[in-house]
Amino acid sequence: MRILILAATIAISTLPSLALAQAAPAAVAAVAGGYSVEETDVGTLIDDPAAKAVLDKYLPGFSGNDQVAMARSMTLKMLQQYAPDTFTDKALTDIQTELNKLPKK
């Protein structure tokens, strides 16, 4: 996981326009709770205890990983292109569904 996050951080920092320009392969539900897997950075999600609990539910060990600090400015959708087996379309959809239930901040 550490290598994947490090690789994602390096790739995003050197190719930001490419990473942001790629189309999303799966539709994600509209944001009702204010957080989005496509627009909210990982740091913001981890800093909110309720959102962090959602991440821990669907991505066990992710929020506590030592290397997650390098990915704080990235979204979960951005990370998906570097670790598609971890950040699956189903996982992102499930996370978004739970994030939608959280009160707006």
Structural commentary:
- This protein has 105 residues and is an all-alpha fold.
- The protein has one domain.
- It is 50% helix and 0% strand.
- Helix 4 runs antiparallel to helix 6.
- The radius of gyration is 13 Å and the shape is globular.
- About 20% of the residues have low confidence.
- It is an enzyme of class 3 (hydrolase).
- GO terms for molecular function: hydrolase activity.
- This is Para-nitrobenzyl esterase.
- Keywords: Hydrolase, Signal.
Task: Output the keywords.
105 residues, mainly alpha, 6 helices, globular
Radius of gyration: 13 Å
The number of domains: 1
- N-C termini distance: 30 Å
Mind describing the biggest β-sheet? Answer: none
Weakly predicted, low-confidence segments: 10-30
- Share of β-strand residues: under 5%
If helices are DSSP runs of H or I spanning 4 or more residues, what is the number of helices? 6
Structural class: mainly alpha
Number of strands: 0
Helix content: 40-55%
Q: Residue-averaged pLDDT, rounded?
A: 80
Indicate the overall shape.
globular
Q: What is the H/E string?
A: HHHHHH
GO molecular function: hydrolase activity
Signal peptide: 1-21
EC number: 3.1.1.-
Organism: Sphingobium boeckii
